[in-house]
UniProtKB/TrEMBL annotation, chains A, B:
Belongs to the FAD-binding oxidoreductase/transferase type 4 family. Residues 37-218 form the FAD-binding PCMH-type domain. PROSITE patterns: FAD_PCMH. It comes from Roseibium polysiphoniae. It comes from the Bacteria. Keywords: FAD, Flavoprotein. InterPro entries: FAD-bd_oxidored_4_C, FAD-bd_PCMH, FAD-bd_PCMH-like_sf, FAD-bd_PCMH_sub1, FAD-bd_PCMH_sub2, FAD-linked_Oxase-like_C, FAD-oxidored/transferase_4, Oxid_FAD_bind_N. This is FAD-binding oxidoreductase.
Length: 470, 470
């Protein structure tokens, strides 16, 4: 195999062991778990320090080499996989995995970008604190990737998106310059807040090498209920009431349709119906508090008792143990996976204003049912964040391939409705390569132009993660 | 008086009544309440709609006219006052004062930028919601200015800075283009988060004309205590304990030195010492909850009882009524004003990491006392945000003018210490004209360069609020 000349120079910079060029070494960095993309790259670089990253980027910039930064390789839109053209170099941040500082009194932690999310959660727990970001992929995703994609997850309702958790960043610019923006300040009004640009930029403006993050009190009490109700309008009213009464103690509010629960009962190990009779819609509601003094269970019962009397809620099961809390969440977390057993599923990760969820669901369900008669919409997700995973299972007995061919056309229908509600076609997962072409349809020319101006100002040669987002 | 030719053209665009050119009409827009700046302008424009602002900016851009946007004219760093050169036109947003939408179920409100903060608070209250931003100037400051300066205030501990309250913006770009980023989404990962750039940019990147903002449950219960303790280290430990136990229910944590309380007792109407014996330092601690169910008083007593037993706290007075809560805050809010009665006061609005507050105070107090023997440091403020108003009163009987001549030199000493703690020389008030030259001393060349690149990308002709921030 021909040795790439740049590989030799880069081996001098970060050590030969950290420049992977053999197919077997490179393989884990070139596919992602949905198998949507198969990348090709001359080499994978594994820098171990900010200085390494800086030296690599300086070399890349001088030699016009395209760089694709990669964290835990769990992204869902292909942003982290090099193009099939084979001229993009993967920069894997996994060796940059040091915890630089933990400050429990100041409620902050500073880590390098290759730290795995679960490790970060554990580091916080060691000092009786919470790092609230929680995702399905937390055992392998890295915080640098979470920040670059502004990850959402299940704790957004009370703690916000990843953006809300970041106090400061260290970033290596496309030309190798190092910006030390690693601040742990809660207040700093000295000019433009540059870190905001790198958060959610999917690696297109620079390479995040470290971050200072917020910590929170560790929840001491947690209660959950599985609620049956007639329609999304009732769920919205329940949400509004619950949030008004519980405020930040309301840490989960997830909506699910009956059909999704039925899929779980049929295909998910250990799933059983928490309620005796079936209901058209369900809400999984969770309250938790860092204070032992808070009567969390009383509040949950009082909110739901009132809602029941007001006719908002048809029935509710209260978790009697942590095991039962987990059983409730098991159904919610299984809802995506079980759709596989029912044939093809066309997916959308969308958000609309919270109060528009009932109207959006009504319109979108009608539209897709009109488009594919007898299709089975399974819209579920974070009602409290306005974020619905609007998935649509094929009609019973239909041809899977033929159904999945309607993917783009159905996306267009649903995204059109989302646009009418001033919503987002990518609430959590970002743009990457998957949704790049869709962006032109949903953003104004001016907004795309402003984004491009920023890209040009920070990465004039267009060498970091080219073709992603923009 | 000679009529400015641009005034006639602009009068055709937004109406003659909205182009102020007489000295008496212009006067209120040309001074600010600290009397630090006296501006000169050919005219003050008062557009009434986004279309008006767009047309004005287009005209200004085509004719190379410099524009200084102004809200309620309450800024503390001179950003909103036109230069003495007399060639900057004031664009006052006060007529853009419509509430466009209120959504209590979705916990959002959309308003034009000229809406006065207190009006916004009242609109939220009408639907049993809270808009938490609270400032001394809330009766006259406008939300557009709050956003442009990323205002802080007394509710930051639980609700964040203004930045954290913004969901979407409408902005007129320097060339007149209108960016409609008025979204009320909680989650939206479709490209760069442009609104973040305009927040805190002090009007240097475009004109904010409207904003979608977060609302919160209205607090139903509120308790406060006035606590005496030995030193800032004890205050920090109390903060850490209180936050760990109360989490978001801890809505206020302010530190004050004995000398500041004594100034209040001497000069502030209605102030009386809440505690029997004097203490070196004080903390005003407030807990509040949107939930009637939360035992706020019990928690406050339990936290302070434990701290007392642990020797952290010397004494504490619990407010027995809302009047007493207000009496406690009266002392805190009076602390800036009473310094006038004690002669000259040299001021700093700084922040450091929360856990560094004790060490910062020790060093800074020693340094200024070394610089001016017998000076009287009165550092007070938002300990929970790491934000200290480090004010230093003159020695008793010293010459006020001679003391105030040391302003810049003392600033340099204090800001140097702030820099060693990786802190900020403007925690709340921004840069404007007042601190523009200081910025070069505290930001890296790269950071200033990145800021300039953004400015050039958004305002290539440098016509909006030139010479502010950068």
């Amino acid at each position: 195999m021909e040795r790439n000349p740049h590989a030799e120079r880069l081996a001098e910079i970060i050590g030969a062991a950290n420049v992977l060029t053999s197919p077997e070494d490179k393989a884990p960095f070139l596919t992602e778990w949905r198998d949507l993309y198969q990348g090709v790259t001359p080499m994978v670089l594994r820098p171990g320090s900010t200085e390494d990253v800086s030296a690599v980027m300086k070399y890349a910039s001088q030699n016009d080499l395209k760089i694709v930064p990669q964290g835990g390789n769990t992204g869902l839109v292909g942003g982290q996989i090099p193009l099939e053209t084979g001229d993009e170099i993967v920069l894997s941040l996994g060796r940059m995995n040091k915890v630089r500082a933990v400050d429990p009194d100041g409620f902050t932690i500073t880590v390098e970008s290759g730290v795995i999310l679960e490790t970060l959660q554990n580091e916080a727990e060691k000092v009786d604190r919470l790092f609230p970001l929680a995702l399905g992929s937390q055992g392998s995703c890295q915080i640098g990737g979470n920040i670059s994609s502004n990850a959402g997850g299940t704790a957004v309702l009370a703690y916000g998106n990843t953006r809300d958790l970041v106090l400061g960043l260290e970033v290596v610019m496309p030309n190798g310059d190092v910006w030390n923006g690693l601040r742990t300040l809660r207040k700093d009004n000295t000019g433009y807040d540059l870190k905001q640009l790198f958060i959610g930029a999917e690696g297109t403006l620079g390479i995040i090498t470290a971050a200072s993050l917020k910590l929170f009190p560790k929840p001491k009490k947690l209660e959950a209920a599985f609620v049956g109700l007639a329609d999304p309008q009732a769920a919205l009213k329940l949400f509004s009431t619950a949030k008004a009464q519980a405020g930040p103690v309301l840490t989960g509010f997830e909506i699910m349709p009956r059909v999704g629960v039925e899929f779980c009962l049929s295909h998910l190990d250990g799933a059983r119906d928490p309620l005796e009779a079936p209901h058209e819609w369900y809400v999984l509601m969770e309250l938790s508090s860092g204070s032992e003094a808070f009567p969390v269970r009383d509040l949950l019962e009082s909110i739901l008792g009132e809602a029941f009397e007001g006719g908002l809620v048809e029935d509710a099961a209260f978790a009697q143990s942590m095991q039962q809390v987990q059983d409730f969440w098991h159904i919610r977390h299984g809802m995506s996976e079980v759709q596989k057993a029912e044939g093809g599923s066309i997916k959308h990760d969308v958000s609309v204003p919270v109060a528009s969820i009932p109207a959006f669901l009504e319109e979108a369900i009608a539209a897709v049912t009109d488009f594919v008669p007898n299709c089975r919409p399974v819209p579920f997700g974070h009602l409290g964040d306005g974020n619905i995973h609007f998935n649509v299972s094929q009609p019973v007995g239909a041809d899977k391939e033929a159904y999945l061919e309607k993917w783009d056309a159905m996306n267009e229908i649903v995204h059109g409705i989302v646009a009418n509600f001033n919503g987002s076609i990518s609430a959590e997962h970002g743009i990457g390569r998957l949704k790049r072409d869709l962006l032109k349809g949903v953003k104004s020319e001016l907004e795309l132009d402003l984004m491009q101006r920023i890209k040009d100002a920070f990465d004039p040669k267009g060498l970091v993660n080219p073709g992603r987002v923009l």
